[in-house]
Amino acid sequence: MPNKQDAKSLFSTQSFPESLDLTELAATGWRPVAFRQFILKVHSRCDLACPSCYVYKMADQSWRSQPRKMSPAVIEKVASRIAEHARAHSLQTVDIILHGGEPLLAGAQELATIVRKIRYACAAVGTRVRASMQTNAVRLDEAALALFEELDIRIGVSLDGDREANDRMRRFADGRGSFDTVAKSLELLATGPFHHLFAGLLCTIDLRNDPLKTYRALLEFDPPAIDFLLPHGNWASPPPGKDDDPTLTPYADWLLPIFDHWHDAPALETEIRLFREILRLLSGSPSRSESIGLSPSSMLVVETDGTIEQSDILKSVSEGAAHTGLHIFRDPFDRALLLPGIVARQIGVAALSDTCHRCDIRDVCGSGLYAHRHAPTNGFRNPSVYCADLYKLITHIRDRYDLDTARLKGRI
Predict the structure, then answer these.
(1) How many Å apart are CA 149 and CA 143, to the nearest integer?
(2) How far is Cα 263 from Cα 279, in angstroms, rounded to an integer?
(3) DSSP code of 55?
(4) Phi, psi (5° rounding) for residue 327?
(5) Left, alpha or beta for 185 (phi > 0: left; psi -120 to 50: alpha)?
C-alpha cells in the first residue's frame, strides 16, 4: 500500500477516482488484490416494492434494461470466468453470493444449477466455492431449504425489526407489509433442522424505529449474526436525518444503546457485524467488511446480462456509477483489477481525503462505505456523509474497549 507521502503524487485535479495515476501507483510497489467474492445478480426484479431500495428507487435505473434472470450461457461463462480468475491467482476458496433483485424469483432449482456449475468449474482448478444467498425470504420454503442444505448454501435474510418497524419500508407493491410472510419463512430457517444454514439478518436502520425494540425483535429469530446497515446516501443526497446538518449524529445515537446492551449482556446474544468489526480494528486486526476499516475490497458484481460491475451500492450515487464497460463474454475479471474505481477501493489510506488523514480514528473508520463519500465536486475523495456518526460510534466503542482492556490487565 502506498504511504501517505507517496499518495500526494497519485492524483491530478480531476474528480476521484478518475484522477488516480495508475502508473505512478504501480511505481510505489502497489499491486492489486484478487477478487474473492462474486455477487451474482441472478434475477433483476423483486417481489417487494421497498420505497428506499437503492436498486430500484435511487439514481441508477439500469435494472429496467436488464434481463429478468441469467441465461444458461451467462451462467456457464460466469462459472468459467470465476475458475479462470481463481486459477490465475491460486485462490484456495472463493465466495459467491446469489443476489438480486430477489434471487428466489429465479427458482430454487435454478439457483442450485448456478452453484453446481461454478463449483464444478472451480473444482477443476483446485478452488473451493462457498455459496450464500441474500433474500427477502418471501419465497423461502421447506423444499428450497432442503435443496440449499444439500448444497450447503447459507442464507441471509433482510428484516428491519418487528411488524411495525419492518412494514414501514419492506412492503409489497399493493402496500401490504411483508413481516408475516417473512416471519413464517424465518421460523422454518431459524427454529428447525435448517438453522445451520442461517447466516444472519440484515437490518436497515430507520430512525423512526426504537433501536432496542428493533434489536430485541430480531433476536426473536435466534440469528447467529445481525448487520445493521446505514441507509444509502451521499453529500448530494443525504440520508434521512442528515439533510440539514451533517454534524448531527442520529445514527450513532440510534446504535449506541444497542451496543451498550450487546456489550453488557451476561452472555453473547448474537454477533453484530458492525460492532465486531470495529472491535477487531481497535485490537489491530484487519477488517472483513467494506463498510469500515481500510482492508482492500475484493468484491465484484455480475449482472443478469453478464455485465461486470463494481459494487451495486454505487447505484445509489448516480446513473452509471457502478459501470465498468466490461462483460464476461469479452473480458476476464483481471481487467477489472486496474480500473480506477476498483483500485480506489484497494489502496486503503491513499484514497482518503485530507480531512480523513487528520482524523485520530482514520484507520478504524476508513471513511466508511465508499458510496457514502461521494460529492458532485470531487467524486469519492471525501469523508463519509456519516462522518460525525462514525466518529461518535467508534470513539464510544474505543472508550469501552480501552476500559475492558485495562480491567483485564488489572490496571483498575
Answers:
(1) 10
(2) 11
(3) T
(4) -145, 140
(5) alpha
pLDDT, tens only, 366-387: 999 999 999 999 999 999 999 9
Q: What is the DSSP string of 231-297?
A: PP--SSSPPTT-SS-TT--HHHHHHHHHHHHHHHSSS---EEHHHHHHHHHHTTPPPS-TTSS-PPP
**168 contacts 209 by C-beta, under 8 angstroms:** yes
End-to-end CA distance of the chain: 38
Residue 5 scores a pLDDT above 50: no
3-state helix, strand, coil in the chain (%, to 5): 40, 15, 45
DSSP string across 345-375: TTSGGGGS-HHHHT-TTHHHHTTS-GGGG-B
Residue-level pLDDT at 385: 97
| Cβ atoms within 10 Å of 408's Cβ, excluding its own | 8
pLDDT(187) > 80: yes
Report the C-alpha dihedral over residues 346, 383, 254, 257, rounded to 10 degrees. Answer: 70
Angstrom distance (rounded) from CA 38 to CA 99: 10
For residue 227 the three cell numbers come to 448487520
Instruction: Give me the chain's average pLDDT, please.
Output: 93
Give the pLDDT score at 9.
44
Residues 6+ apart with CB under 8 A from 336: 35, 300, 308, 324, 326, 342
CB 343 within 8 A of CB 28: no
Go through the chain and tell me how many residues it has.
412
Torsion sign across C-alpha atoms 48, 50, 55, 57: positive
- Nearest Cα to Cα of residue 227 among 249, 208, 207, 199: 199
Count of Cβ atoms closer than 10 Å to residue 102 Cβ:
21
Query: Quick one: cell of 242?
Result: 442528515
Give residue 406's region: left, alpha or beta (phi > 0; psi -120 to 50).
alpha
- Read off the C-alpha cell for 35: 477478487
Q: What is the pTM of this model?
A: 0.93
Report how far residue 238's alpha carbon sits from residue 326's, in angstroms, rounded to the nearest whole number.
30
- The residue to which cell 417473512 is assigned: 182
Q: What are phi and psi of 408, to 5 degrees?
A: -65, -35
DSSP conformational letter for 223: -
